[in-house]
Design a protein that fits this description.
Layout: H1 5-13, H2 22-47, H3 63-71
Helix pairs in contact: 2-3
Amino acid sequence: QSADFREFVSSLADPSSPIADENTQAQVIEDILFARNRRLASEIESSLRDYRSIIVPWGAMYLPEIESWLQTRDFVESGEVARKALGFW
């Protein structure tokens, strides 16, 4: 319903927003962070059946959980590239 992205972000920060309550925010984080990470881990395992090397891109919030998952499976970091993906305003 927002006219532009800036208005959308402002509406999310509004305490009267329908997603401002703690339970809804926890569900959003579950959906966009933890569920995504579980799916990514599954896709990595599936891809390793067909490929010896894979590239795993992730953002800052995904880093700790994905990094931990990769380390428990003896992956070796071979490089790192930082790129700006989005600029807001």
